[in-house]
Amino acid sequence: MLISQFKIVAARGLTLIELLVVISIMMTMIALVAPLTIDTVNKAQAQSEYLSLTATIRRASVEAFINGAGVDIELNKDQLKAFRIKPSFTTSMQTSATNKQLILQKQYQYLSFNDDIIKLNKNGIANISDFELKQGNLTKTINILALLEN
After folding, report:
1. How far is CA 15 from CA 7, 8, 12, 19, 107, in A?
2. Where would I find the beta strands (DSSP E) of 1-150?
3. What radius of gyration do the chain's Cα atoms show?
4. Contact 83, 93 (CB under 8 A)
5. 16-88+97-149 has which CATH code?
6. N or C terminus of the chain: which is more exposed, having fewer CB within 10 Å?
7. What are the transmembrane regions (predicted)?
8. What confidence tens digit (pLDDT) does each residue in 79-101 have?
9. Class of residue 59 by CB neighbours under 10 A (exposed 0-12, middle 13-18, buried 19+)
């Protein structure tokens, strides 16, 4: 009779072992997904820099056209510098440092360039048709003429 009076009640909760198993499974999943997420974020930031570069070149072309003065865009490693060229009435084709006014300077984290100078005349037209840049492991060619047409 004594034994029938006591009922064994099942515990309704998680044991510490079950909780640790669930946490370890979640941590394993996070460890597998996190590198993919970081890589995706880096690619998005690199693409954002690329779009910023193309917008800067377009803006420099408009600047040259509006002001009626040439603009030089110097590309060097991971830097871009844009200079407004003050018109001078000398016969020399070279622009001296006194005729240049720095209007923009940018540092890029994901883009790198060969040493190159894009000269935009007073009509906003570039002296070269394209240039190359590196975006991570990719080498891209930007067609300046097509970029400025859009």
Report:
1. 21, 18, 9, 6, 54
2. 71-77, 79-85, 100-107, 111-120, 130-135, 138-143
3. 30
4. no
5. 3.55.40
6. N
7. 16-38
8. 999 999 987 665 455 555 568 89
9. middle
For residue 100, the one-letter residue type is K
Count, residues in the chain: 150
In the chain, DSSP finds a helix count (H) and a strand count (E) of: 3, 6
User: Which tokens sit at 4?
Assistant: 């029938």
pLDDT tier at 10 (50, 70, 90 boundaries)? low
Q: How far apart are CA 52 and CA 71, in angstroms?
A: 18
User: Tokens standing for 73?
Assistant: 């865009």
Prediction pTM value: 0.71
